[in-house]
Amino acid sequence: MAENDSLKFKYVFPGDYCPAYVNTVRGGITARGELEIHFLHDRPPLPDTSEMTFIEGHPIQREFVADNLTGLRHVKTGVIMDYDSARRLHKWLTEKIGIFDSMMEKARAQQTDRDSAKKEEAKKE
Fold first, then answer.
1. Same-domain pairing of 92 and 75
2. Which of 26, 87, 112, 122 has its CA 20 to 30 A from that of 5?
3. Tally of domains within the chain
4. Which domain holds residue 47?
5. Over the chain, what HEC string results?
6. Model pTM?
7. Largest Cα–Cα distance of the chain, in whole Å?
8. Alpha-carbon distance 92 to 99, whole Å?
9. Is the residue at 67 inside a domain?
10. How far is the C-alpha of 100 from the C-alpha of 60, rounded, in Å?
């Protein structure tokens, strides 16, 4: 490919494409030496049933969760990638996290400035 040539990609999404919220990750190295990552969503269980009774016209609701579960772990999706893809993902995540860190630092500084201004105003009153 010549130096000035380029590739142009079109993104193709399946009809049921829907980004999923995740807050946990599990995985490891497969027997074939690839990286396997499972993205999960941890949350408390919703009740299996609920019961509403009325005492003197006021509703009282009780909820029942089976088996005294304390949490649920929903596996949203998983990916398997080779070493080179894992390195590219690492580089991409490092770049995005750096941008995110900068945004968070700026937001914290702005909040600190607002808090200081409020304290100064309170002293004047």
1. no
2. 87
3. 2
4. 18-81
5. CCCCCCCCCCCCCCCCCCCCCCCEEEEEECCCCCEEEEEEEEECCCCCEEEEEEECCEEEEEEECHHHCCCEEEEEEEEEECHHHHHHHHHHHHHHHHHHHHHHHHHHHHHHHHHHHHHHHHHHC
6. 0.66
7. 83
8. 11
9. yes
10. 45
pLDDT tens by residue, the chain, 125 residues: 566 789 999 999 999 999 999 999 999 999 999 999 999 999 988 877 888 888 888 888 887 766 667 788 999 999 999 999 999 999 999 999 999 999 999 999 999 999 888 888 888 87
Please indicate, yes or no, if residue 76 is contained in any of the structural domains: yes
Q: For the chain, give me the number of helices (H) and strands (E)?
A: 1, 5
Extract the tokens encoding 13.
Answer: 């999404």
